[in-house]
């Protein structure tokens, strides 16, 4: 099934010494309070239990630190040792450490079991290395339902819905393992993400016919029907189960009602029992997406009536909702009432000013945040909303200052979105030379992301920089991607040629778009 994908390299050739250097360099040593002589006196099974205990307690650093000491004390370890260690690696954002653990497993012959390989599949997928996940999966001799589920959820986690359905189809064809509730839940989530009604209903029918536990699958089914706009079906699932006290299921149903603008049912559900904070937070997120001020205010009243306004996450949601609905005064009032402001609180308030065109106030709030007495440091998201505010308000010098501050003062690495905002700031000031110098510096590290060339093309179009614009257009036309992204590129390039008056090229782009049968989704960007 997956034989066409590249194979995982021979990890055993790598030196495992790097693992120990990486481990101690990342402060795992602070957890290493186990003297070697003590470890030698204990049997391996008890140490393996302690590794699992660290992981269950949410302490992956502790798991890795104990593992390092165990290996130093007794180099021969079992496959049961590596399973919690791989779980710890999956939780950490350091994929190289996981690869080094895999190399050690190969060296010791501890990667042969289904459990160990399932842990490897899960770890690689959580780091986004799906090719490696598939390679490990192909090497599993006795595939059980857990290994199939690990691969399926890995594709789903990384936004590969069609591939996830392919895994489910292969699992059904294999016929050697029984499909679990977790399998069906993952498939329903995939159908929801792809908004495919027919397949989702087929899974629902399978659940009913085979007598599966709908209480377990209820939330997934409600989310699915909400995502395709069938709230009547979502209601049938919820009320048919008679589990009114299930907070997660109720949360999903209320959020679905609001997302589909079914406000009457949403408020009715809230009134039937005292809502939980997380239900209101999720509902506010739906209000922000739809810019629904009326229902957002109703949720604010519910929160006030139930004494929830001391919850920072709820207040952050209220600020975001008011900001997206253009009510900056109300957002500011909520912000001022927060006693313990987090970086999310500050960022939400800055964003509220920025999206409503008040770049000056956004900068004032940002500078207030940066003062020592605030006790909060800005993160990469904070700088993104600040740069966006500067771009919208045309604050060029301030934008340059913030971009420099991000790298020099706070030692944060700008991402693609930060560079796109910064290019937008420079383009509005007509500083095309500075944009090109920035692009040349970025291009030294390899191929630039598609979004950067889109921003450069827009800047060239705005400033009538024909030569560089045509070069950016050429680079964009060389991009490979899915159909919708390719269609967006043709439209952008066509708009650039229209701006500079090359109507023959506009016609050529339109002909290519028509010939290839490409259609761009209205009002949708495929680049950010």
TrEMBL record:
PROSITE patterns: PPR (PS51375). PPR repeats lie at residues 144-178, 342-376, 379-409, 415-449. Keywords: Repeat. One of its GO terms (biological process) is RNA modification. It holds the Pfam family E_motif. It comes from the Eukaryota. GO terms for molecular function: RNA binding. The keyword Repeat applies. NCBIfam families: PPR. This is Pentatricopeptide repeat-containing protein. It comes from Brassica carinata (Ethiopian mustard). The lineage of its organism: Eukaryota, Viridiplantae, Streptophyta, Embryophyta, Tracheophyta.
């Amino acid at each position: 099934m997956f034989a066409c994908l590249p194979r995982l390299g021979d990890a055993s050739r790598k030196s495992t010494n790097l693992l120990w250097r990486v481990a101690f360099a990342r402060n795992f040593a602070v957890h290493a309070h186990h003297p070697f002589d003590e470890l030698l006196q204990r049997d391996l099974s008890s140490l393996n239990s302690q590794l699992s205990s660290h992981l269950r307690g949410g302490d992956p650093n502790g798991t890795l630190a104990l593992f390092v000491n165990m290996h130093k004390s007794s180099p021969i370890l079992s496959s049961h040792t590596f399973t919690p260690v791989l779980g710890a690696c999956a939780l950490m954002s350091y994929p190289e450490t996981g690869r080094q653990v895999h190399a050690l497993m190969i060296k010791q012959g501890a990667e042969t079991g289904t459990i160990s390989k399932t842990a490897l599949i899960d770890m690689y997928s959580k780091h986004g290395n799906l090719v490696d996940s598939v390679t490990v999966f192909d090497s599993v001799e006795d595939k059980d339902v857990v290994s199939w589920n690990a691969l399926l959820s890995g594709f789903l986690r990384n936004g590969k819905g069609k591939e996830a359905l392919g895994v489910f189809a292969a699992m059904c064809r294999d016929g050697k393992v029984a499909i679990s509730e977790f399998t069906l839940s993952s498939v329903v989530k995939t159908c929801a993400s792809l908004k495919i009604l027919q397949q989702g209903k087929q899974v629902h029918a399978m659940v009913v016919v085979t007598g599966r536990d709908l209480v377990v699958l209820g939330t997934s089914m409600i989310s699915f029907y909400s995502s395709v706009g069938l709230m009547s079906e979502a209601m049938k699932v919820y009320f048919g189960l008679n589990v009114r006290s299930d907070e997660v299921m109720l949360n999903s149903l209320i959020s679905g009602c609001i997302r589909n603008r079914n406000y009457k049912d949403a408020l009715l559900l809230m009134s039937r029992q005292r809502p939980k904070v997380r239900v209101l937070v999720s509902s506010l997120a739906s209000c922000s997406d739809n810019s629904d001020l009326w229902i957002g205010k109703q949720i604010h009243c519910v929160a006030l009536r139930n004494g929830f306004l001391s919850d920072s996450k709820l207040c952050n949601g209220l600020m975001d909702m008011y900001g997206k609905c253009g009510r900056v005064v109300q957002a500011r009032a909520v912000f001022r009432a927060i006693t313990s402001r987090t970086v999310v609180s500050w960022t939400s308030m800055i964003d509220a000013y920025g999206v409503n065109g008040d770049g000056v106030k956004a900068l004032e709030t940002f500078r207030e945040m940066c003062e020592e007495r605030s006790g909060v440091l800005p993160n990469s998201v904070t700088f993104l909303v600040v740069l966006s505010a500067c771009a919208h308000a045309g604050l060029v010098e301030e934008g340059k200052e913030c971009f420099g501050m991000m790298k020099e003062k706070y030692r944060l690495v700008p991402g693609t979105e930060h560079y796109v905002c910064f290019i937008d700031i420079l383009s509005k000031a007509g500083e095309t030379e500075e944009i090109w110098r920035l692009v040349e510096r970025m291009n030294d590290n390899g191929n630039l992301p598609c979004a950067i060339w889109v921003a450069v093309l827009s800047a060239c179009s705005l400033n009538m920089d024909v030569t560089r614009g045509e070069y950016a257009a050429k680079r964009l036309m060389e991009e490979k991607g899915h159909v919708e992204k390719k269609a967006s590129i043709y439209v952008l390039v066509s708009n650039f040629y229209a701006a500079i008056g090359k109507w023959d090229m506009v016609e050529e782009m339109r002909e290519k778009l028509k010939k290839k049968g490409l259609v761009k989704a209205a009002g949708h960007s495929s680049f950010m």
